[in-house]
Amino acid sequence: MTHDQSFTNQKFKLVGSRVNRPDGVDKVTGRAKYGADASAAGQLVALFLRSPHAHAKIKKLDTSRAEKLAGVKAVITSADLPDHTNGAQLDVLENCMARDRVLYDGHAVAAVAAIDKETAKKALKLIKVSYEKLPHVTDVDEAMKPEAPLVREDIFTRGIDPKPTEPSNVCKVSTFGHGDIEAGFDEADVIIEKSYKTEQTHQGYIEPHACLASVGPDGNGELWVTTQGHYTYRTVCAALLGMDMAKLKVTSSEIGGGFGGKTHVWIEPIALALSRKANRPVKAVMTRDEVFKASGPTCSTSMDIKIGAKKDGTITAGSAHIRYQDGAFRGQWGQLGAMTAFACYDLKNVQSVGYDVLVNRPKVAAYRAPSAPMAAFGVESTMDLVADAIGMDPIDLRIKNAAKEGTRASYGPTYGPIGIGPTLEAAKNHPHMRAKLKKNQGRGMACGFWFNFGGQTCTDINISADGTVNLTLGTVDVGGSRASMSLICAEELGIPYDQVKANVADTSSLGHNDTTEGSRGTFSSGMATIFAAREAIEEMKERAAQTWDIPVEEVEWVEGEARAIGQKNDNLPPLTLKEIAARAAATGGPIAGHNEVVADGAGVSFASHICDVEVDPETGGTRIIRGEVLEYPIDGVLNSHPGLLPECRGSASPAWSVYHDIPIGSSTHFCDNGIDTGELLLKREVSVRRGMTYEDLCYHTLVLSGVLMKEALEAYFEGRWGEMRRPQGESEHPTFRNAPDEILNVVRKKLADQTYLHYVD
Questions:
Q1: Domain 454-599 falls in which CATH fold?
Q2: What is the pLDDT, as a whole number, of residue 438?
Q3: Do residues 130 and 352 lie in contact, with contact meaning Cβ atoms separated by under 8 Å?
Q4: Residues 207 and 35 sit within 8 Å (Cβ to Cβ)
Q5: Which residues of the chain have pLDDT under 70?
Q6: What was the pLDDT predicted at 594?
Q7: Strand-strand pairing, 170-178 and 190-198
Q8: How buried is 554 (Cβ within 10 angstroms: 0-12 exposed, 13-18 middle, 19+ buried)?
Q9: How far apart are CA 134 and CA 146, in angstroms?
């Protein structure tokens, strides 16, 4: 797609302004529908039987008793699924349902669909599995040793020469770099060599994986699912189950967080298979325990970083060997890590090697610029050590070696007009860097890099007779893209923001759209929206020309209206979008714009970040004491706290309230650098009645938190925050941490014995 240079210096009226999000009211009022909120008449409940072993052969799997249980409508094992032994989808399907071996603790071996959850639970207990335990390995370094147990016997290391003849847990080696690495280290005055490890981290999204699947006897299927990419889910699920892609419609729900973890299928193909077998809709929702056990976290890593520098700060060589554990299935994480490790710097001699290593853990998924944070942690930590060794300011060291336009990247290409330098200069000159630190406080900074990409995107604009513009998107709204696309659409058309109504289409309503990942959503959908809007504008100019009976070349579009140009047309009044839309039936029918694009031109991105922390000398615990996010919003940042403030700050408020006989309630307050210490807006007690359980108190405080947040937002729009906000005051209690089991046991006993002091009955 050719870039229209005439818009390069466009001045924006709407883009960049603060507007109400189209999804905002539904989300804060609880009306928004997430994955688990979908339901259908006659739906069944799906539950999964998961392996208790990290590695084992499945010697016998007997589902006969479960199948005979009243209320069970379908049981699925790998035997019920298509054979992809020699296909590209084998790994994906085998992760969804184990075949002859389980490869991690939590690996699904069977699934049932029953009339209710209790029946499904009974059915799982009736399934008999005989396992032969096998040696397992979970540490990435241990997995690379010659004597390590093999996770997969069909994996031969790629990326090395000669090609190996023996299987290995190392599935791929990716090497990048240029120059003479050894000569570079020979030039150095100082060489710092350091090893690091990072642990596996889950994305921690609020909403678990959930879906509602329905496949009819005619083979047509529907899937309602929480996902970052419903078109990809359609493609993968159809391939796995041998379905015609056109017969499967996938609708994305609102998403309660993904961060990369909802770019892969987990339970969805099995839910579809159960529905196909039972001929009933099937709903599957992961428990939180299942989310952690059986869906993809990011990698753990082990790395060796070596950097050489001259006394003046010139880096002469950089080397990184980074080992990424992929879980039990192949990934590309080591390759991405090796590419990003030294990407922020202009180095003459550099080498980075990434290893993808299999272990007996769940399949790894993306997590916010996947693989880059681990590599950055190792390189940036070593950069600080180099700065200390040569007596140079850490930011100045980075500025001296910063990648810029014309730099040959460590992974190959030459950078265009972008670099890390401006972000470093901004960090160096920011007031944050001059703020004084107190005892037990420290300041750190680091740089980061990511590629970005565009991908396939398709967008529709349809203009209604009343002038309302319906914007249909194919990219899942993960972080506010409906608002940003509405702004772009309104900007192009020259109309008010609230005249645009954005929605995310199902897979039957638009052409293919790639997954919302890799920072592509706004870039690609924005491009498609711009050109769809311009197509609609051209159509409206045609309609105006027809109305005026003049050539279309004599019509221009300015600020939401068609204007006739030329002296002979001075007597023709402008036609607004609403006026043109109202006459659409008489001038040619519906007015629309459409665009499909493989969005090109996505550039790389650089970032620098500053963070201050305070260390508790007694516990070693740390907390962030300065956050620029808190200082950016003009009117402040609100938090809903399920506890009364200042009486009960911190975690597990209902538990600590009962334990210390503090009244129970919820609060809405402004965030500051402390834990729940900012100014109050609202607080209200929960009426605690005899017979309530701890779970009841958690539920009621959370519900009340939502109610108070809604009231706070209503007060904001009424301009009442100034009169409402007030200091919290002090509390006689400490800031509470998570309540351990011994505290929870006391709490539950007090509630059972009804000895809590603040009952209302």
A1: Aldehyde Oxidoreductase; domain 4 (3.30.365)
A2: 85
A3: no
A4: yes
A5: 1-8, 626-633
A6: 98
A7: unpaired
A8: middle
A9: 17
